[in-house]
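Priority: low. Protein: Aromatic ring-hydroxylating dioxygenase subunit alpha. Input follows.
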Amino acid sequence: MLNSFSSPISSLLDQRAAGHSLPAGLYTREDVFKADLDVFFHHHWIYVGLECEVPEPGDVMAIDIGATSIILLRDDDQQIRVVRNVCRHRGARLLEAGPSIVSKLVCPYHQWTYELSGELAHAPHMGQDFDKSCRSLKPVQFRSIGGMIYVCLSDEAPADIDRLAEVMEPRLQPYDLRNTRIAHQVDVIEEGNWKLAMENNRECYHCSANHPELCVSFIDLDFGFDPDSLTAEDRAIAEEHFAMYAERTRQWEEEGFPSQTVEQTRDCATNFRTQRLIIAGAGESQTEDATAASSKLLGSMTRKDLGDVHLWGHNAWNHFMGDHAVTVMVIPLSADRTLVRTKWLVHKDAVEGVDYDLHKLTHVWIETTNQDSDLVRISHKGVSDPAYEPGPYSPFSEKALDDFATWYVDRMRAHGY
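Result:
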């Protein structure tokens, strides 16, 4: 095997064996980290936030992605816009990362002032012949899919996001995410590579041993198993479960709630998977007892028995339930540090302490994220060890990881690596 510390990135990609995890250097090397940012966070569509985070004109949200910073905002005409967070004078940042409320975007350095449309309104001491019309803030390509904001920082955005929109718009419509609000947000810095964070979320092989809170509402059979390892009794239980799943999915579909598994995870640019999952136990929500956390349901929902619409992307995972939603965004900070930002959404009129209890709403995913953070930490330590060599994925529980690693290598090669 080539030395991963000296070989070009292309050699590391060549070393990846089907059905196995990635070579160490693809997780640990600084040049790979920089390439990942360029390929996957600048030339692919990434999830960055929600329309409901900027509900009124003048509401803005600055988001940092590597050296890049963007501003998500709502303008005076109630339209969503996304612009570069770079003054067109000498490049100063207009806003620090996070939410703000402004009437105009004013550069703190020399007070160049921009309308919420991005147009330059005022540039002091630039002379009468200065043409403001060519100095507007640079726009960013974005798509709002059911109220979720996806951006592409490249001028040439992958066209296959249309498939994501086609699939998810009808699935998200009953939840009316545009009329939700953020009840809580938690940022966790995981001590590991962003791909390890995504791989960890792509499988539940580890769930029963590590996520007691989540397993109250998750059904372990849904995440793969070796049928030869089951007793005849357990095999009969599994067959009964999947027959029930097929029937429940058929009923949901007939009632107008799209539920079938849709995957676009190989031979594509925009990577996603969605499915309506049955919730275990009480069957209502991802809480400590699997009952709804909020009595005020989302959007037009009138039922609590419609499961969990889950949606993966290459930098996000999301869960949409009748009473609330959980969205998670992943942004690499360095080769060994990753921002995992979790948001809990409730109906915009839901009142804490009246309609929902914040602890019940957030406890399962706070615990799960902390547990996952530790797993990512020990995984990164392991792939950094000289003894590490890529190991085989379970064909039953880790197929999604093989898909992700295959997609990753293919997309790196498509961009010249």
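The mean pLDDT is 95. The chain has nine helices and 17 strands.
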